[in-house]
Each structure stands twice: as C-alpha cells, then as structure tokens.
Specification:
mainly alpha, homodimer, 7% strand, two-stranded antiparallel ribbon, 149 residues, 6 helices, DNA-binding, globular, 2 strands
Chain lengths: 149, 149
DNA sequence: AACGTATAGTTCGAAATCGTATCAAATGGA
DNA sequence: TCCATTTGATACGATTTCGAACTATACGTT
C-alpha cells in the first residue's frame, strides 16, 4: 500500500518534543544550581568519549554554534568542573579536560538519575523502550544525514 | 527478573533529545523570520484545539511559565497572527483568537512540512513510526503523571 | 458588604542561545 | 617566502526562557 501517511512524523515529533521537555526537567532537577542540561551533556561526553577534545569538536558533536559551546564551557570552568588548556598542536585552539570535581559530579548525577529511572521502570515496561530504541536511533541517523549542509 | 536495566531510559532520552533538536530545525526553517517553534505550536494549538483560550490555559497546556506565554503571544500579536481580546467572563483575563493571517500561516507551514515529511518517508519506513508512537505516548503520559507537583 | 486569599497577566532582571563581527593562528598556492 | 584563505575562539547584541515581584480582578468566608 503506497500511501505512507507522513502525518505520523508530525505526531511522533510532537510526542518527542514533550518527552524531551519532561526528561530535561528530570535531569536539571538533579543538577546543582547554575548548571543545566547542556553542562551535563558536555561532562558526560568528555567522560565517556573524548576527554581533552577541543571546543569546536564538541560544538560539532552536539551540533550547536561555537559561541554556545564557548558559553557552556565558561560556565563549567567557573564551577571548576573542566579545565581549559592551550592545545599543544594548534595555537588557535584549546583542549577541554575534566577535573576530578567534574568527574565526580557526572558520576553522582548518573547515580541519581539511575535511582529515578529505576522508579520509572516500575511504572513503565523497559522492554517497550528497548524495542523503540533502534527505531529512534535510525530516525536520528536519517535526519542527521538529511539536514542541509 | 527484578532488574530491568534502567539505563535504557538514558539512551532513549538521549536519542529523543537529538531528534527534538533536528525536528525543531526542520520546522523553524519553514517559518518566517522572527517566528520560532513555540510560535507555531501556539498557532497549531489554537487552530486544532482551542481558539479563544486564555493565555494561562495555554501556558498550562504546554507546561511553560506564564511569562513565557506572554512573550510568545506578544510576538504572534506583533506579526498579526493572533488577536488578544478581553475575556468577557473574567476581568483579569484575556482570550487569544487566531486571525486569518494566523490560520493561513499555520496551513502553509503544515503544507510545507507535509512535503518535507513525504520526502523523509521515502528514506524511512513510516510503519516503524506508527509502531513506536503508542509507546512514546504512554511514556509521555507516565512522565507527565510522575512529575512532582 | 468587607476582607483575606487566590488567580490572570505583565514588568523586570538574570541566564541561555545564537548570528555577526573580530582577532589570532594555521594552511596552501604562487 | 608571501599573502590570501581558512579555521578556532571570543566579544557583542538580539531574542528567548523563566523566576520574582507587582497590579488588578475574582472568590470565599464571615
């Protein structure tokens, strides 16, 4: 049947927008005052993927403007969670390194979220989440590839 | 098996955050200069659900602070897309009504998105979206009910 | 009716996002 | 080597988000 109704995109994106808002609230409720979701995202990225990366690398990874990354990093630095050092391989550039406090805050936040997610798992079958995850991943990959360069 | 791995929440929320960002970019690319996603969301809500509603009603519907709704409505009014009238049933309150221009812009944006979604549907099986939609809806309902009052 | 409380909307200020402009350093072709 | 172009980072300004404080109106109890 060749009528794939495109309005399902609309509905899915609508639900996704609401869930994003609610999940961001859950995260930010567990962060110290003055830190918000983008700060945690950067901490997490450095911890899991790429400690020592340059600001541009991370701006590209999250698809945010360079200026936004500068601002986020300034906040993290002011809280002593990351350290900015000159990049020995490029005089224009810097490297972003986690501090011990940064690593600790990340772990502590992950733990707090784990507790909350366990509570949620009592109300929502995680098998259903496991089932939709690959679809979300493929959707993200498709949209990522489709955005105009 | 009392250990449903809660980290799947983390992964799903992560994908949802990225998709939200990408889908918002798709929408805003099709809006006139000076209008962003929240403006469209309000237009759409008025059109589909509740023309003539009060600002507080809509703030509650979208779970944003009253002040944010004031700001969004001011932008829509400046563009001639909505009209704010006093509420005959409550002297403190107002009613938000769509103008013809507001209805037209909403239709036109929906149409443009429809074209884009049809393009996406060529690259992504909409059956998979149909399948995840109820899960997203139930997840949203669960989280909505779980947020602290 | 009178008064205390609750509610609708706005104003104001702080923080965040992001486009433009700017500067410094790297790169590459003549 | 020289110089135009590119690239990393920041400064600045406009817009957005949102909490706190404020005004005006409605409501409920007496």
């Amino acid at each position: 049947m060749p009528d794939p109704n495109p309005s399902v995109f609309f509905e899915v994106f609508n639900e996704i927008g609401i869930i994003e808002q609610l999940s961001r609230a859950v995260l930010e409720a567990r962060l110290p005052d003055g830190l918000i979701a983008p700060h945690f995202t950067v901490l997490n990225h450095l911890c899991r993927v790429a400690d020592g990366r340059t600001p541009v690398d991370m701006a590209r990874a999250f698809q945010v403007p360079k200026t936004s990354m500068t601002h986020t990093l300034k906040g993290l630095e002011a809280h002593g969670l990351v350290e900015l050092r000159p990049n020995p391989e490029d005089g224009r550039s810097k490297q972003v390194w986690l501090t011990d406090a940064g690593r600790a805050l990340r772990s502590q936040t992950i733990a707090a979220l784990g507790t909350e997610f366990a509570r949620m798992a009592a109300d929502f079958d995680t098998e259903r989440l496991l089932a939709i995850r690959p679809v979300l991943t493929d959707l993200r990959i498709m949209m990522d590839a489709a955005r105009d360069p």
